[in-house]
Amino acid sequence: MTVRSIRHGDASDGGADAVGGRLSRVDGPAKITGAAKYAVEQQLEGLAHAVLVESTIASGKVRAIASKAAEAAPGVLKVLTPDTIISLRTASDWFGTPPPDKPYCPLARDITFSGQHVAAVVAETFEQAVAAAALVKVSYDETPAIVDLSDGKAGDGIPVDAMTKEWGDAQAAFASAPVRICAAYNTPREYQAPMEPHGLIARWEGDHLTVWEPSQWLDGMARTYAEWFGVPFENVRLVSPYIGGGFGSKALALGHGAVAACAAKMLGRPVRLVMTRPQTFTGYGGRAATRQTVTIGADHDGMIQSIVHRGVNETSIDGMWVEPLGSVTSIMYATPNFSSKQNVVRVNSVVPGAMRAPGENPSAFGIESAIDELSYEVGIDPLEIRLRNYAEQDPEAKKAWSTRQLREAFAAGAERFGWARRTPEPRSMRDGNQLIGWGVAAGTYPVRRAYGEAIVRILADGSVEVESSSIDMGQGTYTILAQTAAETVGVSADDVVVKLGDSRFPRAGVTGGSRLAGVMTGAVHKAATAALDQLVGLAISDPRSPFHALQANTLVVANGRITAPRGDGPDVSISELLESVGRDRIEAVGDTMPANSSAEDRYKNYTTIAMALPHTEGDYSRHSWCAHFVEVRVDEDFGTVRVSRVVSALDSGRLYNPKLAESQWKGGIIMGIGQALLEEGIMDRRHGRIVNNNLADYLVPTNADIPDIEVISVGIPDLHSSVLGGKGVGELAIVGMAPAIANAVFHATGKRVRDLPITLEKLI
Amino acid sequence: MRDFDYVRPATISEALVAAAEPGSAYLAGGTNLLDLMKGGVTSPERIVDITRLPELNRIETLDDGGLRIGALVRNADLAHDPAFAKAYPAVAEALLSGASAQLRNAATAGGNLLQRTRCSYFYDTASACNRREPGSGCSALGGENRLHAILGWSDACIATHPSDFCVPLVALDAVVEIEGKQGRRHVTLEEFHRLPGDTPQRETVLEPGELIVAIRLPAEAASFAAHARYLKMRERTSYAFAVVSAAAALTVRDGKIRAARLALGGVAAKPWRARAAEAVLLGADADEAAFVRAADAALADASPPGDNAFKIELARRIVVRTLMSALAGTPALMPALPASPFSSLPGVRHDA
Q1: How confident is the model over B17-61, as pLDDT tens digits?
Q2: What is the pLDDT of residues A37-92, one digit of tens each?
Q3: Which residues does chain B have within 8 Å of residue A74's beta carbon, measured at their own beta carbons?
Q4: Is A731 an active-site residue?
Q5: Which A-chain residues 550-579 have CB contacts (< 8 A) with chain B?
Q6: Which of A11, A127, A685, B196 is deepest in the core (most CB within 10 A)?
Q7: End-to-end CA distance of chain A
Q8: Which domains does chain A have, with CATH numbers?
Q9: By the CB < 8 Å criterion, does B307 face chain A?
């Protein structure tokens, strides 16, 4: 792949080690050589193995579970059923809402979806557990299931009033607009499909629980385990040194974790439970299927007068998931009249969950397809119509953008892509059997802000250690925190050791919503600054320090050495200084919480999302922005679409490490190509079962599907968004990719595909 | 996974004795069998590991000009054998369009013939499948069957055979060499796989305990080398089974088709030799009109058992395009994206 960066945002020119430098992933060698030990790879004495038994019906009741044969099978230690598993307490949700006072059982008697956990077998070996699990026979009283949104029994659903957004008189303005378009856009159920399946090892020592589990949120999951088992939060330790992909699916403690922890408690032995690949399609929720209707009223110049938006997403029978479908619709373009409403519809599914840019992703597919349709309706270039309707401030919050480099993104992307050479008519570009189409779409993601905490230690050998309970799921946390500490203290990044993924470390909130980098660079910067201040303070004031006689106000620390500002004094290494003052370490905890925060506030901040700061807090509206330019080639006979070129220009503010940010952007772009062309959970409509529940049949792009991708950074530091000026990176780039591709397919073929994915039978 | 016995014979005759026990299964590359065992789809009681039988691992030219491919020759080794790829370019292209590099390094020629269908209901032990459990029914009928058969299916089974390799092989009159207790026998690949009828569990003519030892290509198969292509429509560019595929081989003289071979993949429970289409082509002018007539003949008996009617039209178009590509001539170099329509444009260098 080609990488080309126009660096507006890199304030630092301190080389690869400094913030803004292109340091390679510090965890890379360990992962490539296999030395990185993932959570469930821990070798523990006496480890037992649990395997789940799942419902084969989508709706009904468990009549009976015949487990005698399994219990008698070789190596079996226990068969857990709703009748034999220990009782847990219901835990609070991720907002920290106090839970209802009722027991929680992770094994179901009442079946609300196919693939629900109904029993588990624990045995001495994994193979014995698998063999015995096949002997567990479950009988059911089956009732009709609501398979999906298109099921006749599904109905219109439940209005979610909190999603309603209205200003002006959208209906009236639409009715009187000279140009009107109205269309429905659907996205299917999609799955995170991380390479590392979900799983854990649970071990009890008295009333202390240790859980090794891939996690996007150690403190939040520790809270849930603590509440389930009625033990103090401090008694639960989560360990998650590396995560093999999460995409939103590893933020919460889930039913299988409860089963494993119960089994460990009941047996008095550590228990490992790892989901099979098919179970990763039902053990937790993927992206909810969505439907949107977007109507736009405009004048003949393409100026939008009104947007009326209606959305629906699926949720489960007894859970609630709202995929905010109006989130991009309400801010992308200036419109004097606007209305958005949303319903959720209950279907027999596991409760859907967070998947890369929940809300913004399907929302953008609606509005960014619709404005493309409008551009053809009024005969204005798709890029031009976006610029004409450019929102100079947040149309919903009526606040100034903190920064919005979207115009710059359009300009840089169009220039690099060669957009000006595009011929406007659909089907006007061709190469042999292949129709060629060029499409554009924009994307955005809000800046989610929270507070974080870290400890920074300067050690006797001059090295620096950083600890935080935040995590690295491949996005580069280890690396950017090393850069932050290195730059702040004044050492090389090689001399910084970052330790993450242990809930005993200073705390961090959820790694989700693209917030971690901004939160944790801020916390590490603060802790490192405090440690540096201590170091310099000692050097100046300790009588044993070689600088003591200098009576300086400050000293310079760079490259691990301490000198006077004018270079007219001693020049000693950090390690020499510490030795001379008789210290084996300096350490400082830094957090970004408001100064007088109570212990309760802190607990709430790190274990729930209730303290997260709204992106429109104060005077500004804070978002990342991007513009995708896509070329597709469509084989006219076969309807197969190949994305042949992508140029994306993105505004994530200041980049802490452009190399890693570009990698995340490209990952989002690739995932967007999969969403546009391949990904779809296929249901058997009779049984409510996912048919393609494996990575051979649930298609994600291969290398051969991915063309050259150019990413261009157009961000500028945004200090309203984070301490060091960055905005969100991880979710941004997937937003807008699917509509950019669908728009390019229309330009190539003249066919508007409004149902993802764009499979060949929709084009032939 | 259930416990099973594992034996590793040193000779073919030892293998035949070991596999004579009921419930035995031969293990070669294991790329399909082991997945099926882990998923509880098959539970053999005895695994007979034939990977240490060196005489099955050879590619030999025969005295009559034919070729003998040992059953244990790995897909990758065969496809990358320069002499093989030159003489049978469509077969090499088919091999390279299948699975992933890692799987091709493990999968064997004989095992490729015996790979099981990719029908999701065959893999889902909670579903009915006559192929997995005779008499249980067919969940694919009336279920999710967008990618299922359009030719030769029955009410008992609508699954397809997933092989790419078999498609050009059946077009080129390949023969399967089978060793059993009664000695060696030869069966044409066209007759080797069975259509489902009422007994979809009987997928081939192999009797219990019989072993594929080689696949033979007759001398004539190499005569098509200048005009032989394999084209595979799949939903992503690599590591996907065919929605529909086709192999075409032509001999063209003075603008007339002197010999024609055509087979389809992904359309039936066996690699589908399109003999009616070949009859249309023989002696016809080598042009698109003839190819369209051939495509109509190839799909004349096709019918959709469910939501897969689009595959019939798709198959017609693939037949035409594959014949056009074969007519244009085998490219000098293997396409960078083997068998993909995105690398089969006339006039485009295939290593570009």
Answers
A1: 999 999 999 999 999 999 999 999 999 999 999 999 989 999 999
A2: 999 999 999 999 999 999 999 999 999 999 999 999 999 999 999 999 999 999 99
A3: 3
A4: yes
A5: none
A6: B196
A7: 31
A8: 1-11+381-449+613-764 (3.30.365.10), 39-144+193-281 (3.30.365.10), 450-607 (3.30.365.10)
A9: no
